[in-house]
Amino acid sequence: MDNTFWTFVGLILFFVLIVYLKAPGRIGKSLDDRAVRIRKEIEEARELKEEAKQQLAEYQRRRREAEEEAKDIVAAAKREAEAMLKETRQRNEEYVERRTAMAEAKIAQAENDAIAEVRAAAVDIAVAASAKVIADRNSGSSSGLFIDNSIAEVRKRLN
């Protein structure tokens, strides 16, 4: 009996002890449990990946909707600005037309007033000249009443 024999006996006892303690079953069960756990993790990872894909698609859809909404808002703002600009231009044109009409009316009134003043001045000058001519011609006392009446009547008719 040498050392090789006792080593062989120790090896056999080791294998018997391993079989007695059911180490291969425990190792197999441990490996099976680990495989099941890995499968669960892989399945969870797949589910998370699918969920992430769905969320990504949802976010992209929302982004596209937001971009479309932003485009719509910008287009509406442009239309509104154009409408406001058009309305402002129209108001300005109407204002200028009103102011022009008012200025023309004032000018026409000033012309009428000037014409009336010139006529009145002409009448006054004509009446004064007539009075002087008649007074010079008729220096008598009885014709003075007739002259005053004639001058008053001329003034009424000319004004």
From TrEMBL:
Assigned keywords, A-Z: ATP synthesis, Cell membrane, CF(0), Coiled coil, Hydrogen ion transport, Ion transport, Membrane, Transmembrane, Transmembrane helix, Transport
Family matches, as InterPro entries: ATP_synth_b/b'su_bac/chlpt, ATP_synthase_B_chain
Main location: membrane
TM helices/strands, residue ranges: 6-23
Top-rank taxon, per record: Bacteria
KW Repressor (keyword) present: no
Cell compartment(s), UniProt: Cell inner membrane; Cell membrane
GO cellular component: plasma membrane; proton-transporting ATP synthase complex
Pfam families (UniProt xref): ATP-synt_B (PF00430)
Membrane topology annotation: Single-pass membrane protein
Family: Belongs to the ATPase B chain family.
PANTHER family (alphabetical): ATP SYNTHASE SUBUNIT B (PTHR33445:SF1), ATP SYNTHASE SUBUNIT B', CHLOROPLASTIC (PTHR33445)
Quaternary data: F-type ATPases have 2 components, F(1) - the catalytic core - and F(0) - the membrane proton channel. F(1) has five subunits: alpha(3), beta(3), gamma(1), delta(1), epsilon(1). F(0) has three main subunits: a(1), b(2) and c(10-14). The alpha and beta chains form an alternating ring which encloses part of the gamma chain. F(1) is attached to F(0) by a central stalk formed by the gamma and epsilon chains, while a peripheral stalk is formed by the delta and b chains.
Annotated protein name in UniProt: ATP synthase subunit b
Species this protein is from: Jiella pacifica
Protein encoded by which gene: atpF
